[in-house]
Design a protein that fits this description.
By secondary structure, the protein is of the alpha+beta class. It is built from 2 helices and 2 strands; from the N terminus they run ββαα.
């Protein structure tokens, strides 16, 4: 089966990239729906989004850990009944 390559230009990064339309149509999103080829993203845009998500996850994890430590500290400071 021959690949049907679609070339796209990312106007944000002035980057041309290509993808196999048939392969993209076979992909499914989290809900099980097919991904439309027009939704393919520039590799650089995708990497930037992944970086933002990782930073957000790290920040959220750190906040959770601080909250858990604060709760543990509050439990140790409560007078015994």
């Amino acid at each position: 089966m021959a690949a049907h390559m679609q070339e796209v230009l990312c106007t944000v990064h002035d980057l041309k990239f290509a993808f196999d339309i048939d392969r993209v149509r076979d992909l499914k999103d989290a809900a099980g729906k097919s991904i439309h080829p027009a939704l393919m993203r520039c590799p650089v845009c995708s990497l930037q989004e992944v970086s933002r998500l990782r930073e957000s996850l790290e920040k959220t994890t750190n906040q959770r850990d601080l909250l858990v430590r604060a709760i543990d500290l509050a439990k140790t400071l409560q007078p015994l009944s």
